[in-house]
Each structure stands twice: as structure tokens, then as C-alpha cells.
Amino acid sequence: MLAFLASLLFVLIWSTGFIVARAVMPHGSPELVLAVRLTLVTLLLGAAALHARQALPRGKRLALHLAAGAMLHGVYLTLSWWAVDHGMPAGIMALLGALQPLMVAAASVLFLREHLPARAWAGMGIAIMGVGCVLMPAIERTGAGSIALWPAVAALLSIMGMAMGTLIQRGAIAGDGIAISGAVQNAGGALVAVAAALLMGEAHWDNSAMLWLGLGWSVLGLSAAGLSLLVWLVRHQRPTRMSMLLLLVPPLAAVEAWLIFGERLGPVQLTGFALALGGVLLGRARARQRADAVAEPA
């Protein structure tokens, strides 16, 4: 029950990332906003870790935490926001995000020796088709023919970064506390975002209420809560099972955009939402006897 509630809460929180990005981008340069966001999260989780007396990882574990954060927070967020800000349609960016569970699944089979039943592959395929249906109107409006090379490359690299960061969570760092793990990993992400902000040389920040509201939710909701839940789920479930949850994010984001911005939500998108949900449930299902006989590693 706890894992189910954590999964549900994670998907609901993570889906708001698309909404926040759309609301914040006109008011501040993406790299600067992310640098401020990740730095604030580092301080917040660092204070929580200090209060909980969680020891700072050292040596190889510290390096792995920084690498995981650089990939999961820095590379993924910085490159995906940069791609959208430089012409990558948000719908296509979200559809590319559906490749992340496939990358994690393939890497888990190759490197972690994880066995995936045919049901998991079938569920993933159905869910990806559902995501495509949900995003089809947005893709038709924007089209893919006008996308420049570098935003497309940045988008793909961002998805690869998230997949790599997810896989690192299951290694030697899995035993460290969530708060100290989050603090160190957000520090790794902040280093990437700060470097990107310095390289871009753009410092747009209009100090509007919308910018501060978006930043506040990004810090408290998306990073402090959402990313902590992501790390917890990866540690308590197999990486592939957790990554499948990300396939529900674009459909939920489409519903939120319909509620907040009045964007169109037609029968094709509703069908896609049902396919995505059904595919994720199928892919994450486990045989009863296997679940009873073998407990997944925490």
C-alpha cells in the first residue's frame, strides 16, 4: 500500500513539471532558474539531513551521488528545458521522454541482469502508444520538420541522462539516507546548471510573482518531494518498474493543461490516457506466486 501511494503521489507531482516549465520560462532564463532551484533544494535537504544526523557519504559513494545528481537533475533538466526554450515543441519533448523507460529496461537487462517478462515489454509498448495518442494534437500543430539539430540532440541527451541517473540509484549508494542523498545529488545537479548558466551568458529574471510561485513549487514540490519520492521508489522497486510510472506523466500533464490553460482534450487523447494507464498497470503487474516467493531488494 505504501509503495502504491508513493507511486501515485510521485506521478501527480512529477506531471506538474510540464505546467511549471510553461509558466516560468517566459519570466527567466531556464539555466538560471534551474541553478537557483537546485541550489535552494540542496540547502533545504542539507538542513533536513543535518537535523536527522545523516552522515555525508565519502569517497566513491560521494562521487556516485554527485554523478547521479549531475545526470538526473543537472543534465536532464538543463538540456530538456534548453531544448524546449530553443524550439523543441513541448509535446515532442514529452513523447521523447517515453523513451526513458525503454532505455532503463534495456540497461537493466544488460547490466543489472534484471529479467523482464513479456508482459512488461507489452505493457510498455501499449503505454507508449497511449502517450503518442495523448500528444498527437500538439505534435500535429507544431510538427517535427522545423526542429533544429541541436535542440533534438539536447533532448535525446537529456533523456539518456535521466536514465543513467536512475540506474545509479540502485548501486552502492542505495543505503544512504534520502535527505543526504537528495542534498548531495541536487548539489551535483546545481553544478551542471550553474555551469550551463555561465556558458549561456543569459541572465533574464523579471522578478514576477509567477516566477517566484513557479520556483517555490519547483523547490518544495518537484525537487524536494518529487525527486525524493523518485529515489525512494527506485531503491524499493526495480528501476524498470519505477520508470514505467513516467509514462503516465504526459497524459496527466495534458489533463492539467486542459484544466489550467483550457487546452483541447478530445476523444483521441482520452483513449490515449486509458491506453497509457492500462499499459503501465500491465507492465508493472507481477505474478502472484513470484511476488510471494521472492521479495524485491530494498
Structure in a nutshell:
With 298 residues, the chain is mostly helical.
Explain what the structure shows:
The chain has 298 residues and is mainly α. It has one domain (2-293). It contains 13 helices and no strands. The protein has helices at 2-24, 30-51, 59-85, 90-97, 99-111, 118-142, 149-168, 178-200, 209-236, 239-244, 249-261, 267-284, 288-293. α1 (2-24) crosses α11 (249-261), α3 crosses α8 and α8 (178-200) packs across α9 (209-236). The model is unreliable at 287-298 (pLDDT under 50).
Feature tags:
mainly alpha; 13 helices; globular; AA-Vitamin_Transporters; transmembrane; EamA_dom; membrane; EmrE-like
Given helix and strand content, the structural type is: mainly alpha
* Number of structural domains: 1
Number of helices: 13
Tally of extended strands? Answer: 0
Order of helices and strands: HHHHHHHHHHHHH
Average the pLDDT over all residues and give the rounded result: 82
Query: Low-confidence runs (pLDDT<50, min 5 residues)?
Result: 287-298
In one word, what is the shape?
Answer: globular
Distance N to C terminus:
15 Å
How big is the Rg?
19 Å
| Fraction in beta strands | under 5%
Q: Which percent range fits the helix content? A: over 70%
- What is the makeup of the main sheet? none
Topology:
Blueprint: H1 2-24, H2 30-51, H3 59-85, H4 90-97, H5 99-111, H6 118-142, H7 149-168, H8 178-200, H9 209-236, H10 239-244, H11 249-261, H12 267-284, H13 288-293
